[in-house]
Write a structure and sequence with these properties.
heterodimer, A: 62 residues, 2 helices, 48% helix, B: 749 residues, mainly alpha, Cytochrome Bc1 Complex, Chain D, domain 2, two-stranded antiparallel ribbon, 27 helices, 4 strands, 62% helix
Chain lengths: 62, 749
């Protein structure tokens, strides 16, 4: 049943890759904002002509 | 949420000079190509499924053609709907949403089209080779090695394109859908490489590197995760993109969607062993698989509820918009399938459900409901946008919805009834302790009406798809294709020279070199692959061995390969589970040590016919001959196809040396040089014995026909442990005298 070791190593490798991605994503602030991304998706068609990405219209007045 | 709070995380940019707005174009042509391929292959794959379904109550529907007989058309169906229909559907959704989520065109147009044509070429080659009988027999990994290599190359191209696009994105935040896409690309690559380790024996034949229980474990680790990372994660990403778009409201909880992703990723990959409950797999591995399967309910239902709750306050839209209707059923089916899956992974439930049509019902809840309905939903959404028009007929789409739903019900309900009926009848004992239904065929005949209903369900579902084809065609005709959509965005990198969280120089360095990064990932995956192969040679097998278990004789090897070619494993398992109901019916339960020379394993996953692991010696050779020619001559009412071509086709003995050599390379102890001469001699001698025995059974046959090899293999199955140790322990493996022993033994019975 040594093949199970290979599978565990491969599975762990995948899991570790995603763990590292998770740590990177969290530390680089990917998950700091859990509100706007879900709304921005809705406007990506309109923004095809007038971009609001990253320099959102809403920020301009401030 | 105040307006001020809706600021992107790149706020420090404000105050600097006017940010540089970049113009670019989204590639719609590639999306359209994948969308059309999705529709075309959907029709083909589902029709192949219907053809297979009809043969289960009307075997003559194969028109006596070996190429479209159930055992060969079933892998055509499964491969077409998974890799062609859902595969193209996934690429369509990813190529559309990824560009818009990243505010960037795909990384490389060349790679996009290489990916598209490469994938279609793979599908076409599968559609040619599978009916010809070129198959590894490992479920959802049936394609032979040259095609497997092509899949790896095209998949790596897709991954490069995906990662490249993410790296050149102009939107700093990676929307949750992108995470699901990354998980799909990377994990499928690793799964495919690990499970595809085979030793070629010619261009269209190979033997799995792993044997028996090890092969089974790798296969179902792959099989389960293929469901997880091919049929589930990319579609979840699409759900998180297209559902909010269609409902025009943000996902219920973005935070929950992030938790959904990470929880799913970390739990999914450990659940594979639930496909091997009560088999020869170690107990602890079975329990591990069961526990992780049960844990999966939490993230899956979190995702389902997140999807359905997105529609809160928008259910009026569901009534009007067929696209949302499809989406709601898809998400509900996802919820049902992900509750049912863990339930089936409980050992006591599995003891009833395994090998029955319950599994078929389960997978079709997922396939027809989740994948099918979600694909239809996205197609109805994407086509009008690609053609800058409106859907031609909402009414027709609504008809499609209801007929597809009805079709799905007509499919899964009869399969549930069939599954529970089979499971219970197989196990039923009389008060005196005998099997109530000792004749397997009696149980099959109970199920046949359900098979008819299932075919009706499938027909309805396909009629619905044709409605969609017509509707989409008219939609395209009524509009003008927009090959590219212009867009503008501000790249985030220049605004943000240093991240707030310290110097992630490695990440930034890699980000600056997308090609280098992707090359490194590919190298990493390849190294991973090598790391997997080397131990296979170095580490000694420690599956408990049984001294009387010997390698197959040359004739039996040929017969086994025909068994694989004809897809017998689609209907017949070779794994007697340790239940009294099974040992009474079939004989001694199967042991891990009996499969050490099985490259690949042939345990199967469905018993449309009885288990065959102890078939050896049960019936005379002449019975097998007549049964294979026309199963109804020996078993009235049987739904097994006729195999007349086995009686006429000549056995291809020229390929024997390559086969023996390949098997030796993967660890079967045939003596060096055995393939040059002795093997052929042994083959002829054993064939003559079978023919002589057939003659005694009033059957005249020639020695050089395929059926002789098949009979030899069937008579060998499961007989090794019955051999008295003194009888065979002394004889060297694969010696000319030891090989045909089994045949003489069985013939004598």
């Amino acid at each position: 049943m040594n093949v199970i070791l290979i599978l565990i190593i491969v599975s762990l490798g995948i899991a570790l890759f995603f763990l590292a991605s998770f740590i990177w994503a969290t530390r680089s602030g990917q998950f700091d904002d859990t509100c706007t991304p879900s709304m921005r998706v809705l406007t990506d068609d309109e923004s095809a002509k007038t971009s609001i990405s990253n320099s959102t219209k809403t920020t301009k007045p401030s | 949420m105040s307006v001020a709070a809706i600021q992107p995380t790149t706020a420090p940019a404000i105050g600097r000079a006017q940010p540089q707005v970049e113009s670019f174009k989204y590639d719609n042509a590639i999306v359209r190509a994948f969308a059309i391929a999705t529709v075309v292959w959907g029709v083909v794959g589902m029709s192949a499924g219907l053809l297979a379904a009809v043969q289960l109550f009307f075997p003559a529907a194969n028109l006596n053609l070996q190429f479209i007989t159930f055992g060969r058309i079933r892998p055509v169906h499964t491969n077409a709907v998974i890799f062609a229909f859902v595969g193209n559907g996934m690429f369509m959704g990813i190529y559309y949403s990824l560009q818009r989520l990243c505010k960037a065109r795909m990384f490389s147009d060349f790679i996009s089209w290489f990916h598209f044509w490469g994938w279609q070429a793979i599908i076409v080659s599968a559609a040619i080779t599978l009916p010809l009988g070129f198959t590894t027999s490992k479920e959802y990994a049936e394609l032979e090695w040259p095609i497997k290599i092509a899949i790896a190359i095209v998949w790596v191209a897709f991954t490069v394109n995906l990662i490249g696009t993410i790296l050149k994105r102009r939107e700093r935040h990676m929307y949750v859908a992108i995470w699901f896409y990354i998980a799909t690309a990377l994990t499928v690559a690793v799964l495919h490489v690990t499970n595809s380790m085979t030793m070629p024996a010619g261009w269209f034949k190979s033997y799995s590197m792993y044997a028996g229980v090890q092969d089974a474990l790798v296969q179902w680790w792959y099989g389960h995760n293929a469901v997880a990372f091919f049929l589930t994660t990319p579609y979840l990403g699409m759900m998180y993109y297209f559902l909010p778009k269609a409902a025009n409201r943000p996902v219920f909880s973005y935070r929950l969607s992030i938790i959904h992703f990470w929880a799913l990723i970390f739990v999914y990959i450990w659940a594979g062993p639930h496909h091997l409950l009560y088999t020869a797999l170690p107990d602890w591995a079975q329990s591990l698989g069961m526990v992780f399967s049960l844990m999966l309910i939490a993230p899956s239902w979190g995702g389902m509820l997140n999807g359905l709750l997105t529609l809160r306050g928008a259910w009026d839209k569901v009534r009007q918009d067929p696209m949302l209707k499809f989406m709601v059923v898809a998400i509900t089916a996802y919820g049902m399938a992900t509750l049912e899956g863990p339930t089936l992974a409980i050992k006591s439930v599995n003891s009833l459900s395994h090998y029955t049509d319950w599994t078929i019902a389960h997978v079709h809840t997922g396939a027809l409901g989740w994948n099918g309905f979600l694909t239809f939903s996205v197609l109805y959404w994407i086509f009008p946008r690609l053609y800058n028009t409106k859907l031609w007929s909402t009414k027709l789409a609504n008809y499609h919805f209801w007929i597809a739903l009805l079709g799905m019900m007509f499919y899964v309900v009869p399969m549930y009834v069939a599954g529970v009926t089979e499971g219970l009848m197989w196990k039923q004992f009389t008060p005196d302790g005998f099997l109530q239904y000792p004749n397997f065929l009696e149980i099959v005949l109970q199920i046949v009406p359900m098979y008819r209903l299932r075919a009706i369900g499938g027909t309805l579902y396909i009629i619905g798809v044709w409605f969609m084809v017509y509707n989409l065609y008219r939609t395209c005709k009524s509009g003008q294709f927009v090959p590219e959509t212009e867009a503008q965005a501000v790249p985030f990198r220049r605004q943000q020279p240093v991240t707030e969280h310290g110097p992630h120089w490695i990440h930034r360095w890699l980000e600056a070199k997308p090609l280098l990064f992707t090359t490194l990932s590919v190298v990493a995956i390849l190294i991973g692959g090598l790391v997997e192969i080397i131990p296979m040679y170095v580490v000694k097998e420690n599956v408990p061995t049984i001294s009387s278990v010997k390698p197959y004789s040359p004739l039996e090897v040929m017969g086994r390969d025909i068994y694989i070619r004809e897809g017998c494993v689609a209907c017949h398992s070779q794994m007697v589970r340790p239940f009294r109901s099974e040992t009474e019916r079939y004989g001694e339960y199967s042991k891990a040590g009996e499969f050490v020379y099985d490259h690949p394993f042939l345990w199967g996953s469905k018993r449309i016919g009885p288990d065959l692991h102890r078939i050896g010696g049960k019936y005379p050779n002449a019975w097998h001959y007549n049964h294979l020619e026309n199963p109804r001559s020996t078993s009235p009412g049987s739904i097994m196809p006729n195999y007349p071509w086995l009686l006429t086709q000549k056995l291809d003995v020229t390929s024997l040396p390559a086969r023996i050599q390949a098997l030796r390379r993967v660890g079967v102890p045939y003596p060096e040089g055995y393939e040059n001469g002795p093997a052929q001699k042994d083959l002829q001698a054993q064939a003559q014995k079978v023919v002589a025995d057939l003659k005694a059974g009033m059957v005249t046959a020639e020695t050089n026909r395929e059926i002789i090899a098949v009979i030899a293999y069937l008579q060998r199955l499961g007989t090794d442990i019955k051999a008295a140790p003194a009888n065979s322990a002394g004889a060297p493996a694969a010696s000319s005298t030891a090989m045909p022993n089994n045949v003489t033994r069985t013939a004598a019975k």
